[in-house]
Design a protein that fits this description.
mainly alpha
């Protein structure tokens, strides 16, 4: 399960399919072309996003679909 405490580098390594969601919300990540360190929560704060439950829900939804084999 993805939480605000997951490190960005762990998130994109374990779930590269989440990069599109990060980019959609203005979160730059390693695979987006610029290194970023720290947690998802810290990245969301830097982007000025205070209400991030919806984004975390999107990330979990995409990650669970690929983990269960629904998306290839």
């Amino acid at each position: 399960m993805i939480t605000k405490d997951i490190y960005i580098e762990e998130l994109v390594q374990d779930h590269p399919e989440t990069v599109a969601i990060l980019m959609k919300h203005g979160i730059i990540c390693i695979q987006c072309g610029e290194p970023i360190w720290g947690t998802l929560g810290e990245a969301l704060d830097r982007a000025g996003i205070k209400e991030y439950e919806g984004i975390i829900g999107e990330l979990n939804q995409v990650a669970s679909k690929t983990t269960s084999g629904e998306i290839t």
